[in-house]
Structure formats: C-alpha cells, structure tokens
C-alpha cells in the first residue's frame, strides 16, 4: 500500500518571495527523490480561474462576496485531484490556499466567519508555512505590483488576519509555522527545508479536512 504523502501549503504576503521559495522547495524535493507536485491558487487556467484573473487585473468588477466564492470554487474544482495525488504518494506543494481566501476577503470588511465557511472540509494541509514580511521590507524589494490588492494598507491588514488564522490553526492542533521572510533567500529556504523534511520523513496521519 502506498503511504499517503504530505500536503504542504505555502502562504505569504506579496513580495515575501513565495514563488521563489516554492520553486526552490520543489527542486529540492525532487533532488531528494520525494515525488512532489506544485499546485497554485488561484489556478488561472480553469474557466473560474479566468474570471478571477480578469478581476485581479481590474478588467472586471465583482461583488466582494461573489469573488470570494469564486476563489473558493477554484479550490473545490481541484480538491479531488489534490487528494488523489496525496493518496498515490505524491506530495502536494500548494502556493496559496484557503488562508489567502480568508485573509484577503476579510481585510475588505467581510466577516471572518462568513469568509471561512465555503472552504470548510477542503483537504487540510499537514504543514502550512507562512512567509511573513513587513510592508517596509516589501517596499525595499521594489514595492508591490500592479494587481488589485497589491497595496501597502491592504497588505498590512492581510498580514494581521494571516497571523490570527495561524494562531487558530495552531490552537486546533494543526501545524502552522511563521517564517521571517525578510532574511536572505538561502536562510529562508533552509528553514523551509527543515520543516518539510520533518513532515516528509515523519508519519503522516489519516487525511483531514479543514475546520471539521
Ligand atoms: N487571493 C488569492 C485571494 O484574494 N483569495 C484567494 O483565495 C487566493 C488564493 O489573489 F492578491 C489573492 C491574493 C493575491 C491574488 O495571487 C493573486 P498570486 O499568488 O499573486 O497569483
Ligand atoms: Mg501576486
């Protein structure tokens, strides 16, 4: 019987180096013969993903709740694929997940509980690594981009909500790690690797669902 592989989520603020670190992690897993697959949310390739993309690029406007539900639906359309990968022994490394969903929507004023509900019972990560960076350090890295949400005030609020989610996940027995992403790339990669090695080599329990 194939052993279930771990589900690893990388969350982070804009300019935290999330995409770079995700790529480095996947390279290293492959080099160590840990089969792994990258999944990225939003997945802009699906029909729902294209609506999200158009919203993020400000080509379309949507009600805050409508876009929130599309982000969640975009995860649900990939949920069974993620489970199949894990059950066939392939680790999934996910660049953003439901925690981004809550953090970004709640920072616009929607209720935290309301934001959480559509993601209840999605596959739960075995490890979540949150790449934390101050808006000041982000600015030093060249500042934010052009997309909706890439603004200092928004990022500050999003960061606060991410930290709250982390406290709740930890209190609930989940594994959430805050990583200081303001450091050099290699130092951050090394810390990420330590945590991933731990879950990749340890016992992975039965699959769990978010907030159930
Ligand atoms: N984002 C991402 C959300 O608002 N909700 C979500 O559920 C997810 C997954 O989309 F500003 C936001 C976060 C970010 C934007 O993400 C696009 P990437 O990682 O830059 O593609
Ligand atoms: Mg972005």
Automatic annotation (TrEMBL):
Q: Which InterPro entries match?
A: P-loop_NTPase (IPR027417), Thymidylate_kin-like_dom (IPR039430), Thymidylate_kin_CS (IPR018095), Thymidylate_kinase (IPR018094)
GO MF entry, a single one: ATP binding
What are its E.C. numbers? 2.7.4.9
Pathway membership? Pyrimidine metabolism; dTTP biosynthesis
Can you cite an annotated GO cellular component? cytosol
What GO biological process terms are annotated to this protein in UniProt?
A: dTDP biosynthetic process; dTTP biosynthetic process; dUDP biosynthetic process
Which domain of life does the UniProt lineage start with?
A: Eukaryota
Record keywords, A-Z: ATP-binding, Kinase, Nucleotide biosynthesis, Nucleotide-binding, Transferase
Answer whether the UniProt record assigns the keyword ATP-binding to this protein: yes
One protein family per Pfam: Thymidylate_kin
Family annotation (CDD domains): TMPK
Q: Where is the Thymidylate kinase-like domain?
A: 10-192
HAMAP family tied to this protein: Thymidylate_kinase
Provide the family line. Belongs to the thymidylate kinase family.
What's the name of the protein?
Answer: Thymidylate kinase
Instruction: Name the encoding gene, please.
Output: tmp1
């Amino acid at each position: 019987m194939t052993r279930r592989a771990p589900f690893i989520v990388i969350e982070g603020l804009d300019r935290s180096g999330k995409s770079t670190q995700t790529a480095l992690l996947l390279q290293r897993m492959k080099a160590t013969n840990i089969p792994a697959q990258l999944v990225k949310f939003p997945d802009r390739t699906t029909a729902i993903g294209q609506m999200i993309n158009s919203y993020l690029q400000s080509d379309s406007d949507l009600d805050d709740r409508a876009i929130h539900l599309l982000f969640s639906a975009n995860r649900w359309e990939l949920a069974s694929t993620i489970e199949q990968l894990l059950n066939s022994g392939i680790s999934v490394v996910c660049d953003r997940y439901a925690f981004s969903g809550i953090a970004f929507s709640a920072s616009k004023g929607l209720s935290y509980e309301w934001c959480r509900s559509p993601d209840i019972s999605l596959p739960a990560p075995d490890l979540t690594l949150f790449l934390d960076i101050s808006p000041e350090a982000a600015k030093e890295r060249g500042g934010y981009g052009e997309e909706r949400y890439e603004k200092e005030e928004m990022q500050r609020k999003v960061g606060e909500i991410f930290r709250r989610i982390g406290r709740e996940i930890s209190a609930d027995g989940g594994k959430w790690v805050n990583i200081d992403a303001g450091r050099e790339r290699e130092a951050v990669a090394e810390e990420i690797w330590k945590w991933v090695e731990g879950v990749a080599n340890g016992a992975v329990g039965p699959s769990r669902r978010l907030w159930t």
